[in-house]
Design goal:
This is Conjugative transfer ATPase. Helix content is 30%, strand content 18%. By secondary structure, it is an alpha+beta fold. Strand 10 and strand 11 form a beta hairpin.
């Protein structure tokens, strides 16, 4: 144990202001990188961190491609292309951005809720109905276990697993100045663009559903908390955790009691464990589960229709989508930036000239 006053070493330099400041330094926060601030129910949109820009979230019902001939797929592709091209204004500054996310999920809360609401009023609450719903939930959990239920050697030649492919779409535009475009406020402009987009997608055979705060939070909670163990490590414990932290049917507080404290920052309320990063390996850890971002931005040839998520014959007799071969819980993200045609054509011409030796 050092003697009293041993720290008064004349040969040792005293602490500087920078040394003291380093003791209270805070590492960069992952949450500060997220753009979501608050969900606005009236606008049905998410307010971004600049306090002006808005984003709309949708869940899409993808087109079934199993058993479709190439000509039908090309027509569906052309209809989708026209919907995307005709729905957005091409702006030189602050362009519109559309992001698509696809993931095979084994979370059955929404499906079970739909099944529960499907029950006829005369049968709701009966012992038989409750037993049936419980057995169906057990069945879904059994067939969606990690690694798959069995090996499909007849059709896909891949492990078969109970899951549902969820596709989500985010539409937003970064506002500049006062945010007005042709006299339209950001919320009005977003509403008009979304109406045109959803109408075009409907003509292409794609159903859309506007996501509310609960839906958005449900999606992102499972992303940033892939394996929460606050209530236990078993499947039912994890399901119970998500039911508690994102319950749509929140009961009002009893008389004489105060409501639970909750923050207004949407991004801050998404994390129940501290994210960690490993710069050397290029990994992010959520609930100690490693996550890596792989960027694909160079194509030699134009991809075929359904190249990633469409079911095509892959040599021999195997019939599956390329996305089916990716690791479990993979998220596919495609980002479209709506660019004026003249700017895009000038950029392509510049690349063509540089490609000639």
């Amino acid at each position: 144990i050092p003697e009293p006053g041993a720290w008064l070493d004349p040969k040792r330099k005293p602490a500087t202001v920078d040394d003291i400041a380093a003791l209270y330094a805070v590492n960069p926060s992952f949450v500060d990188m997220l753009p979501w601030t608050e969900y606005l129910p009236q606008e049905q949109a998410m307010l971004l961190e600049d306090g002006k820009s808005l984003a709309a979230f949708y869940e899409l019902t993808p087109i079934g491609t199993e058993g479709r001939d190439p000509e039908w797929l090309r027509k569906a592709r052309d209809a989708l292309e026209n919907a995307l091209q005709d729905s957005f204004d091409e702006l030189d500054e602050s362009p519109w951005v559309v992001q698509f996310y696809a993931k095979d999920e084994t979370s059955w809360e929404d499906y079970l809720e739909t099944l529960h609401d499907y029950v006829q009023p005369r049968a709701q609450g009966t012992a038989f109905t409750e037993m049936y719903l419980q057995q169906f939930k057990h069945h879904l959990e059994a067939i969606s276990k990690p690694g798959g239920l069995f090996e499909d050697t007849k059709v896909s030649q891949l492990p078969w697993r109970g899951q549902q492919r969820r596709v989500r779409m985010v539409v937003y535009r970064r506002c500049t100045g006062d945010g007005l475009v042709r006299g339209q406020t950001p919320s009005m402009y977003l509403k008009n663009i979304c109406e045109r987009l959803t109408g075009g997608l409907a003509n292409a055979g794609i159903k859309t559903r506007r996501m509310d705060r609960h839906d958005i939070r449900h999606w992102l909670l499972h992303w940033f908390n892939p394996h929460p163990e606050h209530l236990g490590s078993k499947r039912q414990d994890i399901d119970r955790f998500f039911e508690i932290v994102n319950n749509r049917k929140v009961e009002p507080p009893e008389e004489g009691t105060l409501p639970l404290a909750s923050g207004d920052d949407f991004s801050q309320c998404l994390f129940y464990s501290e994210p960690q990063s490993d710069a050397k390996k290029g990994l992010w850890y959520f609930d100690s589960r490693p996550h890596r971002v792989i960027v694909l931005d160079r194509l030699r040839d134009a991809p075929k229709t359904g190249h990633l998520t469409g079911e095509n014959r892959k040599g021999g007799d195997a019939l599956h989508a390329l996305f089916d071969k990716l690791p479990e819980d993979t998220v596919l993200n495609i980002t479209l930036v709506i660019t004026p045609q003249d700017v895009l054509e000038a950029h392509l011409e510049k690349l063509a000239r540089k490609s000639v030796g």
